[in-house]
Description:
By secondary structure, this protein is α+β, with helices and mostly antiparallel strands. It has helices at 33-44, 51-58, 63-72, 90-93; strands at residues 15-17, 20-22, 29-30, 48-50, 77-78, 85-87. The chain is globular.
Amino acid sequence: MKGVLCPSCERNKMTFYYGKWYCSNCHSQSNEAHKQALADYALLINPYINNRQAREFLQLPTSHVTKRILQKANLDSIGATSGRRYRLEYSNLLQVR
Ligand SMILES: [Zn+2]
């Protein structure tokens, strides 16, 4: 399943808009809703992801937005520029705070 599921109502996919995820169903907002989706991707598909795959999986509008999200998640990366892959580390994605 693609997209970022709303962690509040768990019924709706969230939309990324100006740096945050928004749910059109329950109107909640999140800065980090994509982390659960990336953790699911690591478990179900591949522990490494590149920009194009992340953009498609998270259904983000541009590769630039995707890059910012991946960089802010503090993931280790392998390779440079277009070939860069990010290691989806559970301890980074699902931090207990
Ligand atoms: Zn919701």
